[in-house]
Write a structure and sequence with these properties.
Elements: H1 2-25, H2 52-60, E1 65-68, E2 85-89, H3 98-109, E3 113-117, E4 132-138, H4 151-154, E5 183-189, H5 194-207, E6 224-225, E7 233-234, E8 249-253, E9 258-265, E10 268-273, H6 289-298, E11 304-307, H7 319-323, H8 329-347, H9 366-379, H10 382-401, H11 409-420, H12 424-438, H13 445-462, H14 466-479
Parallel strand pairs: 1-11, 2-3, 2-11, 3-10
Antiparallel strand pairs: 4-5, 6-7, 8-9, 9-10
Helix pairs in contact: 1-8, 10-11, 10-12, 10-13, 11-12, 12-13
Length: 480
């Protein structure tokens, strides 16, 4: 016991020292302020560079918006309601992997709508559209000394711009006010290979009327022409309404280049806005930025999911661990776990010389009584069994009558009969039969059992049960 007390005191001291060390070494990490150089574009951020104002406005206006906290690689295999639009705002805290980008673009090819609002988006999220390549160029980078709450610094020398053409993304928008850090979107045609150029030149030469050897004039049907080298070739007109043009559409443009561009990708569409300031908390209230943000984000309706997984708010994070992150609680739990393992390990190893296991006596106190009863029954010692019972009953009767043990049987029976109202003759007869049996009178098991039963009934009538009396006396002595 003393050794265990020493171990307990040692553990308490160790835990106290660990708590003091953690409390002394704990440094509260202050939350970093918003900065245009390192913005936080999450919908959970209510600061200047966040997008919580836009999310709350859309949610309260009845639009179906959600925070997508799963990896974008699970969009195609997601079993719940799938979003119609995925919105990625700004530079993400978790970069897009090759798998994420590939699966996201596959989702767009199957009819999804991807909205990218960033000054320098990842090239893996901007695939080519036919023969067109889309890139962005940032003319002015925001430094750390730029205050995102100071609109004069962010919109210095910037004029509101109007839509380049009447499109769905520009509806109900007169002017928008971007920041001076907005990127310029460049749309450049891809260079064709030499073989393609030769094929194009040959096709143009064959279709040229100056190079034709046919001097007989054109056919009556303008859609048909007879060739010297073959039969008549019919030219089929292409319906422009049935085939989507892969050329990107510039909805808004600045002096340096495009500001808002959208183009098809498979059965879906990709929208690129080159300035997150338009949808951020510090810029959404400028000019018609809010209406443009609604047009860009909502599109044709459906569930709009803001990507929060790559903003560092993935659903794989444990909420409890995330709540205590940055506090010494996690370190304390780890140290307690190590202490528990040390205790379990130490308890499982022998300390000192080996000791024999304690021998537990499983014998009951009634085993002796049962053994004696079996021996007496086998030996047919009925008088001995009756002697044990009668001797105790006679002592109780003598004590009840207030006499001594040497008093005669008749006197004991008379005194007990007077005090209890029992029949004196029957009591004396019972005592005499018992004494005769004990002294060697012939008897059997049935007669001995009958006498023992009458003795127990006598004790019960007088309230002189030896077991009950012994228990009562033992309780009284313990109370004293």
């Amino acid at each position: 016991m003393r050794q265990r007390l020493f171990i307990i005191i040692t553990l308490v001291i160790v835990v106290g020292v660990l708590i003091l060390i953690n409390a002394a070494s704990y440094i509260k990490v202050e939350q970093a302020l918003d900065s245009e150089g390192w913005p936080n574009r999450s919908t959970f951020n209510s600061g200047a560079t966040g997008t919580r104002a836009l999310y709350d406005f859309l949610h309260e206006s009845g639009y179906q918006v959600a925070r997508w906290r799963e990896s974008t690689a699970s969009l195609l295999s997601f079993s719940g309601p799938k979003p119609a639009t995925i919105v990625i705002v700004g530079r993400t805290a978790v970069p897009f992997s090759k798998t994420d980008s590939k699966e996201l673009l596959r989702w767009v090819e199957k009819g999804g709508r991807l909205v990218i609002i960033d000054r320098n988006p990842s090239p893996s999220l901007l695939p080519r559209s036919g023969d067109w390549k889309i890139t962005t160029q940032v003319g002015s980078y925001p430094w750390s000394d730029v205050d995102p709450n100071n609109l004069e610094q962010i919109t210095k020398d910037v004029k509101p711009i109007s839509g380049s053409q009447p499109t769905l993304l520009a509806r109900n928008v007169q002017t928008v006010l971007p920041s001076r850090f907005a990127a310029a979107i460049t749309i450049a045609p891809e260079k064709k290979s030499n073989d393609n150029q030769k094929k194009t030149a040959n096709a143009a030469a064959e279709d040229s009327p100056g190079d034709s050897d046919d001097d007989e004039g054109s056919s009556d049907d303008p859609g048909e022409r007879e060739s010297h080298d073959g039969p008549i070739v019919t030219a089929t007109a292409v319906d422009p309404l049935k085939e989507n043009s892969p050329a990107p559409v510039i909805n808004f443009a600045t002096e340096r280049g495009g500001l808002l561009v959208d183009y098809p990708h498979g059965e879906g569409r990709i929208v690129l806005l080159a300035d997150p300031f338009i949808v951020a908390n510090n810029g959404i209230s400028r000019a018609d930025n809010l209406q443009l943000a609604i047009n860009v984000v909502i599109g044709n309706g459906g569930i709009v999911a803001f990507d929060e997984f790559h903003q560092g708010h993935g659903a794989s994070h444990n909420a409890l661990i995330q709540y205590f992150e940055g506090t010494p609680i996690l370190a304390l739990c780890g140290q307690f776990a190590l202490i528990g393992l040390a205790v379990v390990w130490s308890r499982g190893r022998r300390f000192g010389r080996p000791l024999p296991l304690p021998q537990v006596d499983r014998r009951s106190s009634l085993e002796f009584v049962a053994s004696m009863a079996e021996l007496q029954q086998r030996a047919k010692a009925h008088d001995l069994a009756l002697e044990n019972i009668y001797g105790r009953v006679r002592r109780v009767l003598v004590r009840h009558a207030g006499l001594s043990n040497s008093s005669p049987r008749a006197e004991i029976a008379a005194r007990v009969a007077v005090r209890s109202g029992l029949n004196r003759q029957e009591l004396e007869t019972l005592m005499r039969n018992c004494e005769d049996t004990i002294n060697g009178a012939p008897t059997n098991a049935r007669e001995s059992l009958r006498l023992a039963k009458r003795l127990r009934e006598l004790e019960s009538k007088l309230g002189l049960g030896t077991r009950a009396r012994d228990d009562r006396q033992r309780a009284e002595s313990s109370d004293l």
